[in-house]
Design brief:
By secondary structure, the protein is mostly helical. It contains 3 helices and no strands.
Length: about 80
């Protein structure tokens, strides 16, 4: 455990941020999985829209780098277009 007061505070704030980031990452994974599962069905467009929205939000919040978000979206689109 740290002795310095500011470091103790950083440990607490880092833990809060970690929990918040984990939930955002989990939501992205869930939406991407739902979009790939909906491939070829009537719900494909809606599931894809929600997945892209979550990926963009994660990038906007800084949970994910903007290039990583673009790569995820590109690969998801490519995967869904290949199933048609």
């Amino acid at each position: 455990m740290a002795n310095i007061k500011s470091q103790k505070k950083r440990i607490l704030t880092n833990a809060k941020r970690h929990d918040r980031n984990q939930s955002v990452r989990a939501e992205v994974k869930t939406r991407v999985k739902a979009a790939t599962a909906a491939a070829g069905t009537d719900d494909e467009a809606e599931a894809l829209r929600l997945a892209v929205k979550r990926i963009d939000k994660a990038a906007q919040k800084g949970v994910m780098h903007k290039n990583a978000a673009a790569r995820k979206k590109s690969r998801l689109m490519k995967q869904l277009n290949a199933t048609d």
